[in-house]
Each structure stands twice: as structure tokens, then as C-alpha cells.
Amino acid sequence: MLRLYSIVLKNDNGIPKMKNVFLRVAVKNSFLSAFELVRCEWICFLFFSPFFFSCNQQTDQIDYSLQVKPIINKNCISCHGGVKRQANFSLLFRKDALDTTESGKPSIIPGEAAHSEMIKRLTSTDPEERMPYKENALCKNEIEILRKWIEQGAKWGDHWAYVPPRAVTTPVGNGIFAGFFGGSSSKQTIIDDFIDEKLKAENLSRSKPAEKSALVRRVYFDVVGLPPSPEQASQFIENENEDAYEKLVNNLLASPKFGEKWASWWLDLARYSDTKGYERDAGRDIWRYRDYVIKAFNEDKPFDQFTIEQLAGDLLPNPTDDQYVATAFHRNTMNNDEGGTEDEEFRVASTLDRLNTTFQVWQSTTFACVQCHSHPYDPFRHEEYYKTLAFFNNSRDEDTYGEHPVLKMYEEKDQKKLDDIIAWVKKENPSAEKNTLLFLKTLEPKIHPHDFDQFVNGELIDTKFLGIRHGGSARLTNVDLTNKSVLIINHQTPEKGGIVEIRADNMNGTLVSRFEVPSNGWKWKASFVPIPNMKGVHSLYFKFINPKLKEGYPVTAVEWIAFREELPGKGRAGYQGVVTDFDSLVNRTTEGTPIMIENTERVRTTHVFERGNWLVKGALVKPEVPRLLNPFPEGQPTNRLGFANWLVDKNNPLTARTIVNRVWEQLIGIGLVETSEDFGTQGAKPSHPELLDWLSLRLMNEHKWSIKKLIKDIVMTQTYQQDSKVSAELLEKDPLNKLLARGPRIRLSAEQVRDQALAVSGLLSDKMYGKSIMPYQPDGVWQSVWSDDKWETSKGDDQYRRGVYIYSKRTSPYPSMMTFDGSSREVCTINRIRTNTPLQALVTLNDPVYIDAARAFASKMMKASADPAAQIGFGYESVLFKSISKKKLSILSSLYSDALADYKKNPAEAKKLIKEEKPELAALTIVASAILNLDELITN
User: What is the rounded distance in angstroms from the CA atom of residue 329 to the CA atom of residue 870?
Assistant: First the structure.
């Protein structure tokens, strides 16, 4: 006999569904009496009633975020959201959804589903009335959820990512896996408990621990980005002490190579490049920012401090050079210095990019969507984008040819002059110290030619430099001359006799200055011109005179001007020497790094751009953060510094979760939130939400934002140390390894593939920091228009430095890096895709760097033994730390024999390969190249 019992369960989307449960019982001619049957039914009822009642309790109250929002996003929001508001009905915000529609009536009446037009339209049989229009009708379950939701008051809910992490109850580790597999050097951790809880719910168990040979490779690559040496691997493999693995992890975290590995990851986020981008894509000296990132990771700089320095280091009290350099994070935006471009257009583009990148990097949010309209899926309003943009819109950079402001890096003798000048100023007028130091280090504040207007007989030369012909003029508005007594004008003046006349307020106004511009050929020179002290803000009219010039030639070319107070202490002994040194430092050409400086004069205002068009300005806005997220911290300034502190405030719901998820993804291969670029309502749900919050709170509160401690937490787990082998059954059930029933299995990054080849061959240089390198690449690959920039192959060991130091050109990235899915760095790259293509094999078999590595690796193999088979076995074991199988040894030995026969017949071919007529070495080089190309070698 079959008895059918119906119980209410939930499907994967949280939607109630009936589940029929059959209980097979025997009544007639069986061992069960009727009494026993009744008893059995009661047992069944008692067993299943918790499901029935608990599910009923859960489904009585509709959850907006889990049940309603997915239906709206899938079926309604494309026509009734931030982009479109058909019939003036929007479901993006509750206020809009309850507002009057085009019909004059609200579409949703809370508590009255039967009278709500939304339900009427969803259930209509008229194809012209029924919604979604000309699309498949919603299923009955979906309509029922929406109906109940409206009946319950149409309450809106908060998406999980926009609620700050909450303290969670950690699972009670039952020890079911702890020590189950012999030989593990780790203990069950709280992270493992979270993972195990999910595995148990899915009737899965963790894989056995990885072999030590695999684990040592894995943790080396994940922490420092390089393979261990054979000696380092053996030391760990042969160490039976329980703390061997933890000591290894601690040593790796302390290694200076740690910073290089993690900098490669961060530079993708920061869209770091050695060039400016766009058509010219000229070079940019910004490598000191890369070095700052490496040092910050090695120092384990707390992530909140790391954040503040990059976003607003220039606004900190008495910022150091490193803190200024950190702000080059913002200056990694592209800069279009091609002639004919509009500086303001590309300044705006850079500012928008900074805002978008900041939200991508720290908030995993597609805030960029809001530039043109309110967000289609997340509750960010159009005007909120520009209120947030106002935090970024007052910086001194203006898409200029010289990429100002630039932090000048003085040589030792000039640094001594700088120190002496500042000591003088501090003694004579302490209040002038900060401003003087800022100008000598950055030449800020200054004014660029694109701020001039009302050109007469002149223009901007190549849209960059002020070029006015004889008798011509140009106007500069809103100049505050209070306490200003010196004009500094940076110019090129090939012809003698040029005169500049400056008048205030109109062409015939008060004479401010009349001076001869020194002739200095085609070199830039900053000339100092005394001006009378005039209080207040004025418009200045610059008239240029030189009747000796040929028609059409400018009197001078001006790159920038600055109005300044004269140095204090005039008339005192030594004053003129200080002035002379000041002049020489302003004119000194130095290395430098583009940085951020905030406007203190000529402060900008921010407007909403109608439909995202920078030329169509709407309402004036003030700096303000999105209301959806945490409040702006009290007492913080409304500038980038205050904004940075808002980002790392512990009430921010996204920052800690974002960095935890990104680090987890780097180590495990997939984030706890798979869509690491988008935590919004269209992104994936966390696979382990409680673990994500626990790690986030631990990072902020216990680890004080220490990234090294976060990494150690993860790599010390048994989850991380699992074997990565996968069964067909597990692969079918969990192809992406979201449940973490096996260890990570990841193709090495572009940098790591190259670094490994150089490391195992013995060619890898240990040199750190400094200018970017240019390894060999064929002529013609790298071309630059409108410039003489060339790819000049680095000399000596420099060409064998780590991949993080390779020169990055946006319009022509290093080819082998791109083949292995590197980034061109034109925009922020959250995560690189991982591909497996024949081109990758062509790189590792033919790229000159890999040929050099294979030749050096073969030389090491030859020194190990006189027997070719032993040489091959040594080579394999020295990179994978386990003995080679007979089958692989047979294949590689055959490859060696065939290559040796060919090279003995054609010794000239051997010389082409290894630059020597040594057939044995050439043949072994082919084998070494094959080993370096093995899947198991380029996979971690």
C-alpha cells in the first residue's frame, strides 16, 4: 500500500513547492497490523511536521530581496527601472513604485493587491494589457509571490551586500574531518567548519590532503608567485614536524618576493601602465607607484591605510613623498595629449574613470552605470553619481602635456638646496613653509593656458601652449592677486625682443606688469617677474609684442604661469642666495611621478551631466555619498580624504567583503561571490555568506586590516590544502568548485608562467624596484606614432627580471603577457579570464625568453648526470618535486633521441638554437623546453 503525504518545501529560489512523500507500508498479508499502520502514520507526521510548519512560517512573510527582486529584475526592470520608465512606472525605488503612473493611478497599492494595477496587468488575458508586454507571462508562483508581497504592504528590502557584515555564529566543529586523513600538517579551522557545514548539507566530504610536493608548489606560487627551489621543496617535504607548514607559510609571507606577487594583482585593479594611452600612447614615468605598491604589501601596510594613501595621500597632514606617490593610483588614468584634443573633455573623462574605478576596486559595484541614468538594477540615483563625483572633481590635474602635477625627485645636491630653503622659510615665516615646499616639489598651484579665453591674433599651439602673435592678446579670469608679488612664467622664446604687457580688468586697465621675455631658444625656462601687490580677484589681459617677428609667429610659447608671494626674509643676509636657489630648483629638470594635488585656488564646482554628457550641465551638486550605503563619517572633511575614510569605515558594507572576496579568489580560484566585479542585485549570491561576513569582520577587527594575516588564515585551512584531483561525479555536481570539496586548480598567471621558466633555469634576476624593463621582442611589434619612443631591449640581467617589472604599453602590451590573458591596463581589470589556447604553447616553445630559459635549464640538467635518461629525470623532478613516470620518461627520451640525431646531422641548426655547435645540449634544450611547456607545470 502507498500512502501519499504532502509537505511544503522551498525550491532553490525560495519559492514554496509541494513535495510528495510516499511511505510504503504493508497492511494485508504483512507484518504490520492496522494499529501499527496508524502508529507508522503518526511517526511519519511527527517526522515531517517540522518541515511543514517551519516552511509555512518562512513563506508566510515574503522576502523582497530573495523572492521579489529576482522576479522584478528578470521580467520588469528593463522597461520600468532606471533607464526606462514606461507609463511613468519604475520599480527601482519604493517611492517611485508607489507614485502615480501615467494613467493617473498608482500601479501598486500596499495592502490591496486586488486593486493594484500591477497584479491586474500581470493576470490579464488581453495581450495588449498583459505584462510583461509581448513576453512570456509570469508563472503562477511568481504572480502569487508578488500578490502576497503587495498584500503584506509592498515592503522594500535591502540587498545582502548593502547591509554591513553582521556577527555570525560560527559552526561547531564536530571534528568529522579533523585528522581524518593521516599526514596533514594542519588543524581544523573555523573556516573549515563553515566549509564542512555546506559540504555536509550537500552530502559531500572534503578531498584528502594534497601531496606535499603539490602543496609546496601551490603555496609558493600563491604567496610569492614563484616556485620553490628543489632544496626548498625537499626541506619541506622531508620535514615531519607538525609546525613545518606553518613555518613555511610564515617565511613566505616575510619574503620580499611577496610584494612583487601581490603587486601584479593590484596593478590590474589600479590600471597601471608605463604609457598614457590613446593614439600617441607616449611614455609616462609612473614606475614609483608600482614600487610603492610592492613595498606596501611587503610592509603589510594595513589595507585601510593603503586605501587612504592611494585615494588621498596628498591631503594627509604633512604628506611624505611615498604618500604623494601613492596618489598616482588616480593618475593611472589615460591622458590624451594629441594635438587638437580638448583638455577639459579628457580631464572630465579621467575624473569619471577615477570614480568608476574606485567603486569597482573597493565596492565591487557597477556604479559607472549611473553616469547616464539611475541604476537599472541597484538603488543608486543618477544625481548621486555626480554628488560622489564632486569628491574627485577638485584636483589640479588637467590632462596637460606635462601631466602636471608631478612630484619632482631631486638628486642629492638639489635636495640639499631644497632643505636649506625650507629651513630658511621656516625660520623667517613658519606659515609659508608648507606652501613653499609644495611649490618646489610639485610646482603647484599654477595656471595652464587652456584657462585663457578671448584670444586676439593667437591661439593654443597644438591645443597645449599659449601662442599669441605680435599685437595679440588673451584674457585670464578669476585671478586672486592678494599678497601676490611675483609672476612665474614658464616659456619657450626663440626670438629676442618679446614684450608681455599685463593689465587688470580690461585692455586699458591698471598696468600690472610690462616685461621683456628672455630669449632661451626651444628650451623651457621659468622666468620670475615682479608685480605690484594688488588685492582681490581680477581678470588679467595679456598683450604680446614683438614687431621684429615674421608674420604668423608667436612672441613666445607659454606652458604655465604662477602667481606667488615672494620668499620671506627679504633684506637679510643670505636672502639673495635663497632666491637664486629657489629659481634654480624651479627650473631644474628632474625625474618625477604624476600625483594628485587638491585645488585651493580656482576651486571647481560640480554639476549633474544630463544623460552623462559633460557638455550639458544640470543642477549644481555638493559632495555626498550614496544614501544606500553607510553615512558619511562625522568630522571628516568633504573631500577625497573624507571619502577615503568613508570607504574604510567599519560600517561600510562593501569594502571588507570586497577585499576578502578578492584575496579568496586569488588563492582558491573562485570568489565566495563568484561575480567579484559585481556584488549588486544582478551579481551572484555568496556561496558561503556567513563565512564571508566572518572573514570581513575578522579582517577589520582582529587583524586590523592586515592582508598577510588574511592570507595566512586561508592557506592554513585544510580546505586550501586539499588534493585538487576531481572525480567525474564531483565535477558534474560542482564544476566550478563552489562547494570547495577539492583543492584549487588554477593556470598560472602570465607573470608566473614567465617567472617560473626563468626561476627553474637559474636566469631569474633578484633585482627589485626601479624603472620598467624591456625584454626581447621582435622589431616592428612595438610602434609609437608622433614620437621617437622605441623598445630598447634591456641589457644583462635586467631582461630576466620578474614580469611585474615589464614595461606596459597600453596600445602594444608585451605579447607573451597578453597571450596568457594579461591586461592592457586601459581600464580597471577586476579579474583576468583564464584561457587555454594553442598560442600559449607557441609562446612557451618559441619566445626567445623561454628559449634562453630552456637552454640554461638544459645546462643544469647536463651537470646532474652523464646519462640522458637521468638528466631528463632530474629536470622533471627539480620542477615538480616528484619522480617522473616511466611513460613520460619514455616519451621525453624519444624526443631527445630524435632531436640529437637531427642536430648531429645538422650542427648549424644546433648553433641557431643555442649559439653553439653542441648537438647534445641542443637536444636536451628541446627536452627542457617540452618540460617547461607541460600542463602540470603551468598549472598550480
Answer: 51
Cell output for 133: 508586454
Residue (of 653, 739, 632, 666) closest to 697 by Cα position:
653
Whether the CB-CB separation of 177 and 196 falls below 8 Å is answered with yes
For the chain, residues with pLDDT lower than 50 are 1-58, 174-184
652: its cell numbers: 561600510
CA atoms of 677 and 671, how far apart (whole Å): 10
* Cβ atoms < 10 Å from Cβ of 769: 15
Please check whether residue 234 is in contact with residue 881, taking contact to mean a CB–CB distance below 8 angstroms.
yes
pTM above 0.85, yes or no: yes
For residues 540 and 12, what is the distance between their CA atoms, to the nearest angstrom?
A: 70
d(CA 831, CA 662): 9
pLDDT, residue 101, reads: 86
Tell me the pairing of strands 510-516 and 499-504: antiparallel
Pairing of strands 510-516, 554-564: unpaired
Question: Residue 252's closest CA among 324, 322, 300?
Answer: 300
Q: What is the pLDDT of residue 77?
A: 81
The answer to whether the beta carbons of residues 505 and 554 sit under 8 Å apart is no
pLDDT tens track for 67-88:
888 898 888 888 887 677 888 8
Beta bridge partners of 499: 516, 545
In this structure, the strands spanning 606-609 and 617-621 are: antiparallel
CA distance 347 to 350: 5
Interval 208-265: pLDDT, tens? 999 999 999 999 999 999 999 999 999 999 999 999 999 999 999 999 999 999 999 9
Alpha-helix runs per DSSP H in 202-341:
212-224, 230-237, 244-254, 257-269, 287-298, 303-312, 321-326, 328-331
